[in-house]
From TrEMBL:
EC numbers on record: 3.6.1.66
Species name: Chitinimonas taiwanensis DSM 18899
Pfam family, one: Ham1p_like
Enzyme class: hydrolase
An MF annotation (GO) of this entry: metal ion binding
Upper lineage: Bacteria, Pseudomonadati, Pseudomonadota, Betaproteobacteria, Neisseriales
Family, per entry: Belongs to the HAM1 NTPase family.
Superkingdom of origin organism: Bacteria
Stated role: Pyrophosphatase that catalyzes the hydrolysis of nucleoside triphosphates to their monophosphate derivatives, with a high preference for the non-canonical purine nucleotides XTP (xanthosine triphosphate), dITP (deoxyinosine triphosphate) and ITP. Seems to function as a house-cleaning enzyme that removes non-canonical purine nucleotides from the nucleotide pool, thus preventing their incorporation into DNA/RNA and avoiding chromosomal lesions.
Binding sites annotated in the UniProt record for Mg(2+): 40, 69
Protein name: dITP/XTP pyrophosphatase
């Protein structure tokens, strides 16, 4: 595999993936660069939404496609925002509004624990009968005060367990190896290598 379309329109994810793929002999092309429209994400599970996004991009381009469906899950909120993380505060999508709603929703809760979760799906073609699927998780807690200028999404309010820093206080070199996305990609690449044997 030499070329891969990245089935995402999220600038933060695209930045992280371009760095993660930099050492590899795979050219990753954001779907926006190929004129692919945004896919619907109607499903109740991360894996179904990731598969829908990957298939959509593969069908539109004829290239293998990689999709990431991810979010922040808060046990005290019954797992919310979960698959609805991107539109938690409604449309149009806004990181600032999502963070404000999450902090407000947690104000009355003692238990601020949260985790990031990502599912990656790679399809070699739109009708690939054996999509490659991998997941990753990063534990932490939600804090009311934003800290840090890096990252994207919920990062300024996501204090990483055992680190005393938010995800927005990490450099990309620090975040990628420990993140839900970085761990999922490492697992996916291991599967891809096995699959090629
Ligand atoms: O490392 C992360 N650091 C901070 N926030 C994060 C992270 N990873 C996911 N998130 C948040 C962003 C968004 O609110 C939701 C993903 O939603 P999700 O539908 O997978 O992505 P999206 O709609 O932004 O772009 P796309 O579907 O085109 O890939 O979780
Ligand atoms: Mg999305």
């Amino acid at each position: 595999m030499q070329q891969l379309v990245l089935a995402s329109n999220n600038a933060g994810k695209l930045k992280e993936f371009s760095r993660l793929f930099a050492p590899l002999a795979i050219e990753v092309i954001p779907q926006g660069q190929l004129g692919v429209s945004e896919a619907e994400e109607p499903h109740a599970t991360f894996v179904e939404n990731a598969l829908a996004k990957a298939r959509h991009a593969a069908a539109a381009t004829g290239l293998p496609a990689l999709a990431d469906d991810s979010g922040i899950c808060v046990p005290a909120l019954g797992g919310a925002p979960g698959v609805y993380s991107a539109r938690y505060a409604g449309e149009p999508k806004s990181d600032a509004a999502n963070n404000a709603k999450l902090v407000a929703d947690l104000a009355q809760h003692q238990d601020k624990r949260a985790f990031y979760y990502a599912v990656l799906v790679l399809v070699r073609s739109a009708d690939d009968p054996r999509p490659l699927i991998a997941e990753g998780r990063l534990d932490g807690e939600v804090i009311a005060e934003a800290r840090g200028a890096g990252g994207f999404g919920y990062d300024p309010h996501f204090l990483i367990a055992g680190l005393g820093k938010t995800a927005a206080e990490l450099t990309p070199e620090e975040k990628n190896p420990i993140s839900h996305r970085g761990k999922a990609l490492a697992a996916l690449l291991a599967k891809l290598q096995e699959d090629a044997l």
